[in-house]
Amino acid sequence: MSRSVVVVDAVRTPFGKAGSLYAGTRADDLMVRAVRGLLERNPQINPADIDDVSIAAATQTGDQGMNLGRSVALLAGIPNTVPGYSIDRWCAGALTAVTTIAGSIAMGAYDLAIAGGVEHMGNHPIGEGLDPNPRYLAERIVEQDALAMGATAERLHDRFPTLTKERADRYAFNSQMKTAKAYAEGKIQRDLIPTAARSAELGWGIATVDEPPRPATTLEGLAGLKTPFRPAGRVTAGNSSGLNDGATAALLASQERAQQLDLPIKARLVTFAFAGVEPEIMGYGPVPATIKALSKAALKISDIGLFEINEAFAVQVLAFLEHFSIADDAANVNPFGGAIAVGHPLASSGVRLILNLGRSFEEHPEVRYGITTMCIGLGMGGTAIWENPHYKAGK
Amino acid sequence: MADIMTLPEGAPEEIITRSLVREVDLGAFGHKGSLVLITLDNGEDHNRPNTFGAQSLASLDAAITDALSRHPVAIAITGKPFIFAAGADLSALGFLTSREQALAIGKFGHDVFRRLGEISVPTFAFINGLALGGGLEVGLHCTYRTLASTAFTGLPEVFLGLVPGWGGATLLPKLIGPERAVQVIMLNALNNNTMMKAKDALTLGVTDAVFEPADFLERSIAFAAAILSGRKKIERIDYTNDPNWEKALSTGKAAALKKYGGAQLDAPTRALALIADARTATRTSGFDAEEATLADLVMNDSLRASLYSFNLIQKKRKKVEGAPKSSLARKVSKVGVVGAGLMASQLALVMVRNLKCPVVMTDLDQARVDKGVAWVHEELAKLVEKKRMTPEGAHRLTDLVTGSIDQAVFANADFVIEAIFEELSLKQTLFTHLEKIVSPECVLATNTSSLSVEAMTQGLQHPERVIGFHFFNPVAVMPLLEIARTSTTDDVTTATAVSVGKDLKKTMVITKDAPGFVVNRLFMRFMGEIIDAMDEGTAPDVADNAMRSIGFPMSPFELLGLVGPGVALHVAETLHDNLGPRYRISPTMQRLVKEGVKAFYIKGDDGKYFANPAALALVEKGTNSSSSEQVRLRALTALAQEARMMLEEGVVSTPAEIDTCMLLGAGWPMVLGGILPYLDREGISEAVTGKRFHPKGVACLP
């Protein structure tokens, strides 16, 4: 029954800083732009043949509400015969859209589908409209820190004293440098869909690059930043991802359909896993998720040649690397930099990791497997293991 | 320059459309360098489109200078969401006092816009939404144009009594050739200001590409990059030696003559001259001619009257003078139509289409009822055929329209309108009978055109719910609805009637219950004078053509053929009885009706109309013949007299109501301002009634 699932293509809008680049742009319009850009890049696809459109957002109200998947499909001009749904697993929204669509393809229900995610954190500040059940704290189901992501990152530093602020800052600095280098080499722009963004004061503009990166970052500068989550803390705006706006979209297909249509293949999904941890240290989630996924795939960490890990916080990446004995500055981890530099519009990030991994696969035919992994609020991690379609044994 | 930046006295503050400047790196679109994107934005939402007044033009001028200083590879101009630009700011135009001012405005527009066609880099108009008049002309100055697939465009100037005078009349014929330019500038404008859909604009060559709105700007920039890098080429045709110039110009001329009943009006004539000139004109000579034409038209009473009419129509569409609070209106969820003849059937159709509630028709016998209901059903089916309604929409409405010979079906109706024979006693009997069936709150409306509504309430328990609700034929097309209150009609009834009228998308004028209300009373008075002149011995064609030059859409006798002598005679008789002998009963008309002769003009085998000998044979042969000028003066005098009486009687409260009625109920042209501005400027108002209807400066030059 089970069939192979491949990523045909993935794209994203340039990411913006909340309240800035896309302050005058709706979240659904960002998502529509990503989907239309994806379809424009793949003209051999007849939109009517798309089986489903799964779109993630962490806050599903207002311009991220109205069953975003269906709404985006209609707004993007996809025929109304194509259904859509919205999906949510906070930061792993787009990753979950991908794995859910993949499950549907694997079981033979779908042949071709779109998965993506959007977060407009300017329009929907993190935590907007949340109403945590009082039982959480009254019955100590979670600690207070579990509800503030910055605090969970501080808790990771507490848990693993070897993960120092200095290491976190250096990791963040490297992320900025890797992103700057990737930009200089044109490796990021190629998957960005130019996106019109209007400002009432400035008029229409076109976003063609990410707004958040700070290529002029210095270690000294990072060291001097405030620690907003606790006095004398370790988590700063510099070693965390920011508050961002952006959208991502990926085209998934069964391997048979991709071959029939002669579609390019960026990556083949091997398996995936989600796992939970104590909500107070949600950033640790990628560790158990990856262990679980490797076990399902009967692979070892040493089989994985490329890593795309979401950089919600530097410390959370470091916890992962330390667990698997990978160097902080390993070249095969986030080679194009990560969310600390380009930003993390919550539910959209999962597909950004996949599109980066797909590009790295092209550059590294010697690598057979890669993973995309991310931490998820309220104590979870999600990992997908991918196989490189360009893999050449023995290289 | 300085003096055009000062608003003319009395003009409202300009809402400034700012031109915002931003750079777009074309690298992501496969071309080196940056494009400067100018956004037109007046800071308001789409209900208040961008316009060009003096300060807005200055802002665009500065933006172009700013853009050039950035050494771009191209300059593009686009609009705010849903709107590109709706053209010149007309609000100040009516306040200009000198030809120099008018010339200066034309020149300033040219000076700014032409830069887009003459600077050293290619320019693009990304027309993202509505672009009218000067808004489209900005685009025509650019080297290339893209258009959003949902955007409407057009050059409505000739419709307004102007010409496309910021480059349009010169550039468009050069761009798309004479035939298509005549289509856009003349035929569309004269056809009730028809706007182009994007696919039409593309076919006509007005735009080079059409993109869907979802990513219109991104695709437009990609288009620009493709042009700039030579990946895409747009071929332009030189139309100088096109063989169709003469033919196109005569098509335009014929359309204008037809529209204004044979009158040769300034704006269309001057527009055609500019189009003709465009064949060989340089940009400079063409623009100079446009400026001179604009200045002539702006300093002319006709344009002032047109602008007055245009503004009046806009204003009256939104606000009904003297209407009670809309919150008083009762909900109408079932409508009764008494009668199933052609008028009644039209009423049923317009009601069901707009109110989408049950509409029940009655008549004397089943055959008439069936015929009326079937007519409505067929009309709905035709709408489906013409793709103006979906089949399911038609199913829904078809089911809502039913008929009966038993008026008991009106029992739970909220609004019953009668369109039975124009005979007071019949209507009185009807309303008395209906009162036994319907609730005390049900509005009883009459579509009478000339009877007293008040007289119909005699003996009613609830006369306060009776109101005149007078449509014009054809009901679906004519925008006016006269709402006549009797001395007892209450506010709730009036508010309900106005609310129904709003749903029917009609422009309403509330009148006192007086015979003929406004349109028929004025119109029959005017018509009566023409017919009288003929009966007295004026040759029928002299009488009928006496008014040609002022631009009514049809001559009196052409219209008579449309209305039918029977109806016209009946209305004349009613008005004669109720308003007095100045509404004469013409022996000619009586004979036409008696002999069943329907029209003064009949269509020959060659498709042309000629005088009907059967009608001419019945004309009363008086011995007192008048000249054309005498007939004209006599008819206009009668109009002035009657209008003054109506205002004095309080039939309506302001001269503007009368103008609204004649514009929308009689289709009299905007250049006349309805009618009263024309009577004022011809000196007839003062000569006949001792004073003007409008103060000097309203709907005319100061």
Automatic annotation (TrEMBL), chain A:
One of the record's GO molecular function terms: acetyl-CoA C-acyltransferase activity
Keyword Chaperone appears in the UniProt entry: no
Residue intervals of the Thiolase C-terminal domain: 264-386
SUPFAM superfamilies per record: Thiolase-like
Domain Thiolase N-terminal, chain residue ranges per copy: 5-255
InterPro entries recorded: Thiolase, Thiolase-like, Thiolase-like_sf_Thiolase, Thiolase_C, Thiolase_CS, Thiolase_N
Any Gene Ontology biological process: fatty acid beta-oxidation
Transmembrane intervals: none
GO CC annotations on file: cytoplasm
Keyword Mitochondrion applies: no
Keyword line: Acyltransferase, Transferase
NCBIfam families per record: AcCoA-C-Actrans (TIGR01930)
Protein family according to the UniProt entry: Belongs to the thiolase-like superfamily. Thiolase family.
Protein name: Unannotated protein
UniProtKB/TrEMBL annotation, chain B:
Entry's Gene Ontology molecular function annotations: enoyl-CoA hydratase activity; long-chain (3S)-3-hydroxyacyl-CoA dehydrogenase (NAD+) activity; NAD+ binding
GO annotation terms (biological process): fatty acid beta-oxidation
SUPFAM superfamilies per UniProt: 6-phosphogluconate dehydrogenase C-terminal domain-like (SSF48179), ClpP/crotonase (SSF52096), NAD(P)-binding Rossmann-fold domains (SSF51735)
Positions of the 3-hydroxyacyl-CoA dehydrogenase C-terminal domain: 516-596
Pathway: Lipid metabolism; fatty acid beta-oxidation
Keywords: Fatty acid metabolism, Lipid metabolism, Lyase, Multifunctional enzyme, NAD, Oxidoreductase
Entry keyword Ion transport: no
Residue span(s) of domain 3-hydroxyacyl-CoA dehydrogenase NAD binding: 334-513
Pfam families found in the cross-reference section: 3HCDH (PF00725), 3HCDH_N (PF02737), ECH_1 (PF00378)
Entry keyword Ribonucleoprotein: no
Family recorded in the similarity comment: In the central section; belongs to the 3-hydroxyacyl-CoA dehydrogenase family.
InterPro entries reported in the protein's UniProt record: 3-OHacyl-CoA_DH_NAD-bd (IPR006176), 3HC_DH_C (IPR006108), 6-PGluconate_DH-like_C_sf (IPR008927), ClpP/crotonase-like_dom_sf (IPR029045), Enoyl-CoA_hydra/iso (IPR001753), FA_oxidation_alpha_subunit (IPR050136), NAD(P)-bd_dom_sf (IPR036291)
Protein name as annotated: Unannotated protein
Organism: freshwater metagenome
